[in-house]
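Input.
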Amino acid sequence: MSIKAMSVCLVFTGALFASCGSNSVKKAETAEKTEETKMVGNDKDEHGCIASAGYTWCEVQKDCIRLWEKGVRMNAVNDAGKTLFLVFSPDSTQVELFFSEEDTPNEILDRRSLPAGGYAWNVEDDDTKNVRLENGKWTVSQRAKLIYQQAEEKAGK
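Output.
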């Protein structure tokens, strides 16, 4: 075989090895990216709550919770598509309201004694929502109008 033919073979062999090597590197990088994308539970928020596992941060409990495990489910009186979860602080001095509408922020209400006995959770403002336990069921009203009532699944807190 001539030197010229041998050089051409070596160049093609070198090119073949070079392309195979870079291709395997690209495949390895693609596999790593796919693995990162598919990792379940890698969606922690700023508090460390994993949303894909159903956890959300609860300010009054200072913990990541699942609403359906810790909260009291409420249904809107005039809109079957709206729900609300009540989550009480460990000492029940506060309640956090988690609304089903994404653009509605949570509200935290403070417990206050009622003149006739019992408690209501609200803010010192006539326009606030009021949370009360009435006849063994939780209710949420605003301006004396019932807007949410406890769903049938769970009894009171």
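Strands lie at 56-58, 63-65, 72-76, 83-88, 94-99, 107-113, 119-122, 129-134, 137-142, 145-150.
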